[in-house]
Design brief:
228 residues; mainly alpha; globular; disordered N terminus
């Protein structure tokens, strides 16, 4: 990940405005399928967090499983077959497991040390390892790590990047925003989770991601504002 530790002054304000909007709770409930009208269905990504008990469950927290690969597909990305096999049975999986064993699974990003996310950290190294694989890229790499460490590492894609104004270093910028003002944003995300009727097993980071994605995904596709 990029190494900048500065946070754009507008990012905490932008995030606060988006998660406290009237649309935030509605978007969360629609995404996760709470009180849907007859005939409506939840988004497939609503299963990303909890499929097969979650990616950070103790028994498999440090290994990539077939369940993790399916969970990632619910977020509209696909791990190429050869890379998937290497993650499940090969040296790539062994290397990633060693890194995962050094990434905490019981710490929220808001309370993590900067060093946990900085360049050269096990999390950063794991992201770079995945990003370097043919057919993976930054979006899939981030989503797979978010499945394994949902409290610490965020889902991040073109839609979220676009609505936030393309922050220079998303992990570090978001970390700084979550820690600002005595963790105000983190508390707001947990309050929003309660208001939407979601279980605590949906992390604050995931609440943030879903609110942002639901707010912008339709317009993003319509106007093509996130073209690479």
């Amino acid at each position: 990940m990029p190494t900048s530790t500065s946070v754009p002054q507008s990012l905490p304000r932008r995030l606060n405005g988006l998660i406290t909007s009237d649309q935030a709770v509605t978007g969360l409930r629609r995404y996760f399928g709470i009180d849907l009208q007859l005939g409506a269905v939840a988004f497939t990504g609503s299963r990303f967090d909890h499929l097969a008990g979650g990616g950070d469950r103790p028994a498999t927290a440090d290994v990539v499983t077939a369940d993790d690969l399916i969970a990632v597909e619910t977020l509209s990305v696909r791990i190429p077959a050869q890379v998937a096999l290497d993650l499940l049975e090969g040296t790539l999986g062994d290397r990633l497991s060693e890194l995962l064993s050094r990434i905490p699974r019981d710490v929220d990003m808001a309370h993590a040390e900067v060093a946990t996310l900085a360049t050269g950290s096990p999390a950063d190294t794991a992201w770079r390892l995945l990003n370097d694989q043919v057919g993976i890229g930054w979006v899939s790499a981030g989503k797979l790590l978010a499945r394994k460490r949902p409290r610490l590492l965020p889902v991040y894609d073109q839609v979220v990047r676009c609505i936030l104004g393309r922050p220079q270093s998303f992990w570090l910028d978001l970390h700084a925003a979550l820690q600002a003002d005595d963790h105000h944003l983190h508390r707001e995300l947990k309050a929003l989770r309660r208001s939407a009727g979601l279980p605590e097993t949906v992390s604050a980071l995931r609440v943030c991601d879903v609110v942002l994605w639901m707010r912008h995904h339709a317009d993003h596709r319509k106007v093509g504002c996130g073209q690479e």
